[in-house]
Amino acid sequence: MKGNHRRKFLKQSLTAGLGLGIVTAANAFHEPTTEPAKKVGMIGLDTGHSIAFVKALNTAKNHEFDDYKVVAAYPKGTDDILEWKNKIPEFTAEVKKHGVETVNSISELLQKVDFVILTTIDGNKHLEQVLPVLKSGVPVFVDKPFAASIEEARKIAQAADKYHTPLFSSSSLRFMKGAREVRNGSLGTVNGVEAYSPAHIEPHHPDLFWYGVHGVEILFTLMGTGCQWVERTYTYDTDLVIGMWDNERIGTYRGIRKGKGGYGAVVYAEEGIEYLNNFDGYNGLLHEIIKFFNTHQPPIDIEETLEIFAFMEAAEQSKHRDGERIYLSSI
């Protein structure tokens, strides 16, 4: 194990409401090395995200991504989602064009790299694949979905705390133009948000965990944590999830499965109403990943990621109970 990745975090517990005694990642401290290595490993070549990340990092000019490069990849990803499993040979051939070596195991990968991006498209594989990374102490970014259940999301977070390993996960939509400015008070207090995104359903994941997570992440980026309960209305073409936040602030998520899709939100704030829909790709997320690799400081608390999953799990339960109100404290 690399010693420079095993300095201990200053610990803080998650809020009692989530019932987890683990470190909140953004408040944890992991001392960076003076001259961090730049070698990145990738796990899972079964998604277009892996191709996009490799191309951006390995062809970057003028030190845009601080000279981090993907040097090795473990291709295997999903076992069950055949549409994407069948693309692994194509995506493997593509990353090799950018100088990426492929390896036969995650343990072999960890011998060659100092940082990991886990891009496997199937959230059901994430706990299994990230555990050896967390045990090694190598900082890791986990692409969406963080997991395919609230239970496995919690296990990943607990393992990161146990092994003192820097970890974060996020949709790229968190870093869409204008979102963080609103979160940081550019419009004053946010009183409510109507967020939306495509919400395709995949049978191996709870509904919103697969694709709706993008829009739910927009909602939480703008509203912050503190959701108390949710109610979900489901049709074949549409989801509408209503959430009640603290101070009686209401946030909604609309999941789109028919007609024109897109990503965005309407923000109702103390000093104005603003429409956000400017998503321009993965570079915003990649810049945050590189900052995380440099500092070991995640841009988002693991606490917030887990509340996003509690929100989606509550929405899943509400669907199966004909729209019944589900309190996140019961999740």
Automatic annotation (TrEMBL):
The keyword Signal applies. One of its GO terms (molecular function) is nucleotide binding. Keywords: Signal. Pfam families: GFO_IDH_MocA. It comes from the Bacteria. Residues 1-28 form the signal peptide. SUPFAM superfamilies: NAD(P)-binding Rossmann-fold domains. InterPro entries: Gfo/Idh/MocA-like_OxRdtase_N, Gfo/Idh/MocA_oxidrdct_glycsds, NAD(P)-bd_dom_sf, TAT_signal. Residues 39-166 form the Gfo/Idh/MocA-like oxidoreductase N-terminal domain. This is Gfo/Idh/MocA family oxidoreductase. It comes from Membranihabitans marinus.
